Amino acid sequence: MTKARLAPIHPGIYLKELLDELGLTQAGLARDIGVPAMRISYLVHGKRPVTAELALRLGRYFKQSPRYWLNLQSRYDMDVAEDAIGARVAREVQPCTAVA
C-alpha cells in the first residue's frame, strides 16, 4: 500500500486565506507593504515565489517571523522537486558509505 501524497501547496494559498480571513484586499496589502499589486497577485496565484524581501515585509505586516514565509516557500519548492525528480535522484545517487 503506497501512501498518497498531497499536492504541493504554494505559499500564495496561505496568503490568500489570511487575506480573506482578515478581510483585506491584495491591492490594500500591496500598498501597505510597499510592493506592486501585481507582485501580490502573482504570489496568490502561485506564479511567483516568496522572496527574502517579501518575507520580511509580510512578516513585519502580519507580526510574524519572516522565516514562516520563507519556510512555506522552501517546503513548496522541495515538494515540487521531490514530485518531479525524487525517484530519478534516488536511482542515480547512492548514499555515501564513509563512516564519520
In short:
This protein has 5 helices and no strands. With 100 residues, it is mainly alpha-helical.
* CATH arch. level architecture: Orthogonal Bundle
CATH class: Mainly Alpha
The portion of residues forming beta strands comes to under 5%
- Please bin the fraction of helical residues: 55-70%
Question: Main sheet?
Answer: none
Q: Element order, helices and strands? A: HHHHH
Question: Which value, in Å, is the CA radius of gyration?
Answer: 17 Å
Distance between the termini: 35 Å
Number of strands: 0
Shape verdict: elongated
Structural class: mainly alpha
What's the name of the CATH homologous superfamily?
lambda repressor-like DNA-binding domains
How is the CATH topology named?
434 Repressor (Amino-terminal Domain)
Please, what is the average pLDDT?
95
Question: How many domains would you count in the coordinates?
Answer: 1
Number of helices: 5
Low-confidence stretches: none
